[in-house]
Amino acid sequence: MPQRAATIVGGGIGGLAAAIALHRRGWHVEVLERAPRFTEIGAGISLWPNALRALDALGLADTVRALGAVEAAGGVRDLRGRWLSRTDNAELARRFGQPLLVLHRADLLRALTEALPADSLRPGSEVSLVRDDDHGLVVEHPGGQTRPDLVIGADGLRSAVRGALWPAAAGPRYAGYTAWRMVTEPLAEVPAEGAATWGRGERFGYTALPGGRMYCFATASLPAGTTAATSEYDELLRRFGAWPDPVPSLLAAVPAGGVLRHDLYDLPPLPSFVRGRVALLGDAAHAMTPNLGQGACQALEDAVTLAHCLDGSHDVAGALHSYDRLRRPRAQAIARRSARLGTLGQLSWPPAVLLRDTAARLMPTRVTLRSMAPVLGWTAPGEQAIATENESR
Predict the structure, then answer these.
(1) Measuring CA to CA, how many Å separate 11 from each of 5, 108, 172, 288, 327?
(2) Above 70 in pLDDT, residue 386?
(3) CATH of the domain at 133
(4) What is the pTM of this model?
């Protein structure tokens, strides 16, 4: 049987993971990335147990674990600094077989690119056309024209592949709040636990990275396109500089030019992630808000599941329909759950905030962990499922 070829449009986490999964199954892969380099800047990423199992399926979990940090615990606090809920990471790992790992996005991307042949990575290759018709599957880019057996659209929230082949699909929708992301300089004293502090229409969170640094993130309910009056760093100080410790000391350790800001969007549900021999994955298929920390985790699940469906199948279109059946209901349900959590976190009306915080404080930890099972209990197709008794404890 001739070697099959796949063109992956987009060189982010999901696209690279899909390329690795297919390459290890004997496919010829090319990854077209419009940016001049395969890289990520300035932010951390949380890899939950489901993502680490996906990386296990790719043979990369040990490599990635060596790049990250595992905190002892984390949770949610109120504006007085009181804990509303806490989660023991050891208990999380016991229930779901893997810990919560935090690392820099650039380190994860580097590990993924190093797992692929260098000649399969094609930066500076913005796709100008994707077509799947009676004349076959065609992708045009600055390097020429490609006629692969499969195209994977992994090109993010504003996917060119989705725009070309799903022209009637609704575009991204603003979540109602903006986000800042930053990484501190190494700290002399690192907080023992990560936390997200919920305020009124604002949140601030932090978690440990290797090397004594902290990854911090913040949100505020603002109209889309709002910009800071001075600098984004000054805006963070104005909004969060008097919040409970250690928020002020963390902000003091952030380089003034090291703050990234992005308005947050998600994607209305698509009726299908596939069209002929073209499949969408990651943000191109189901962009979600970051409230559950599941965006990259779901992209990794997509990649592993897609490769599994294609494994041994001579019918690419049929395999893609299996992928859609397995992935779309789950990914869209998690996107809805993330949106609901964001709505709760951004509440600003004082009575609603009081009710939210009281409910969170009264929720038993075991109930919180049990509620996470549908998200974190995922296993790669063909792998042994997590024991149900662990999920129900």
Answers:
(1) 17, 12, 20, 19, 20
(2) no
(3) 3.50.50.60
(4) 0.95
